[in-house]
């Protein structure tokens, strides 16, 4: 059986039997793969220290003749985030885990870029990173046009059923010109000072997208307000 190797991010690991894990990875060249890490929960397993989420991993595996492949080696590289950002990092992984399913060749680059955005930004980091992920999965449009009719000269636009709409296409939660500008600017990599109201509104917009696509809300998106 062919031996494969790739750069990978660990999405989840699920206990299997008494001593093993089933690990879900997003890989750079092979998309999402599930692999059996035999004995990984044994105290002396070489996998124990290496199978960490939010780290750059290099994995080696044997593909299964039919069904799941077997993990044979993991080398752990540097962490993508410092410790204070790891909670938000885990939320990103949970969302990415729903966005990119097995057989989908995408996900690795998108998630790595999001993790970098989370690491770079002082404020709004999680919102920027999640927005990037959702956008890369094709669930968002640009913020200068109504997503229904394409009209662009509206001052007041609205967020309804996870879409940006003009007043003729339907009302909903108002999205001010200022908020749209702020989001576009912060996504472009510049620092923007968000008001609390704008932060909450942006998080509401993202929450609606997650709910519309049946993604379980992570802690940062559960509460109504900060
Ligand atoms: Zn419209």
Task: Describe this protein's structure.
- With 226 residues, this protein is α+β, with helices and mostly antiparallel strands.
- The protein folds into two domains: 3-79, OB fold (Dihydrolipoamide Acetyltransferase, E2P); 83-222, Up-down Bundle (de novo design (two linked rop proteins)).
- The chain has six helices and eight strands.
- It has helices spanning 86-99, 108-120, 125-136, 177-187, 196-212, 219-222, and strands spanning 3-16, 20-27, 31-37, 55-62, 69-79, 157-160, 163-165, 173-175.
- Helix 1 (86-99) packs antiparallel against helix 2, helix 1 runs parallel beside helix 3 (125-136) and helix 2 packs antiparallel against helix 3.
- The longest helix is centred in the C-terminal third of the chain and has 17 residues, at 196-212.
- The protein starts with a strand and ends with a helix.
- The mean pLDDT is 92.
- The site of zinc ion has 8 residues, from loops.
- Zinc ion (ZN) is lined by residues 146, 148-149, 151, 165-166, 168-169.
Structure characteristics:
8 strands, alpha+beta, de novo design (two linked rop proteins), elongated, 2 domains, binds zinc ion, 26% strand, 226 residues, 31% helix
How are the SSEs placed, and which strands pair?
Blueprint (H helix, E strand, L loop, with lengths): L2 E14 L3 E8 L3 E7 L17 E8 L6 E11 L6 H14 L8 H13 L4 H12 L20 E4 L2 E3 L7 E3 L1 H11 L8 H17 L6 H4 L4
Parallel strand pairs: 3-5
Antiparallel strand pairs: 1-2, 1-4, 2-3, 4-5, 6-7, 6-8
Structure summarized in a few sentences:
The chain is α+β, with helices and mostly antiparallel strands. The protein is 31% helix and 26% strand.
């Amino acid at each position: 059986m062919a031996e494969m190797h790739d750069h990978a991010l660990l999405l989840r690991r699920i206990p299997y039997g008494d001593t093993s894990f089933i690990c879900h990875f997003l890989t750079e060249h092979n998309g999402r793969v599930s692999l059996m890490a035999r004995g990984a929960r044994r105290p002396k397993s070489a996998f124990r220290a290496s199978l960490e989420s939010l780290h750059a991993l290099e994995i080696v595996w044997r593909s299964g003749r039919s069904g799941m492949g077997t993990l044979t080696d993991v080398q752990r590289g540097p962490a993508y985030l410092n410790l204070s950002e790891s909670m938000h990092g885990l939320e990103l992984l949970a969302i990415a885990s729903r966005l990119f399913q097995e057989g989908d060749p995408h996900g690795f680059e998108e998630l790595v870029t999001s993790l970098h955005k989370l690491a770079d930004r002082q404020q709004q980091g999680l919102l920027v990173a999640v927005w990037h992920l959702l956008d890369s999965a094709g669930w968002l449009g640009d913020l200068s046009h109504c997503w229904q009719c394409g009209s662009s000269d509206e001052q007041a636009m609205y967020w309804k059923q996870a879409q940006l709409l003009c007043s003729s296409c339907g009302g909903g939660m108002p999205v001010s010109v200022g908020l749209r500008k702020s989001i576009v600017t912060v996504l472009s990599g510049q620092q923007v000072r968000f008001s609390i109201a704008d932060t909450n509104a942006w998080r509401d917009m993202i929450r609606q997208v997650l709910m519309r696509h049946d993604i379980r809300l992570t802690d940062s998106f559960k509460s109504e307000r900060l």
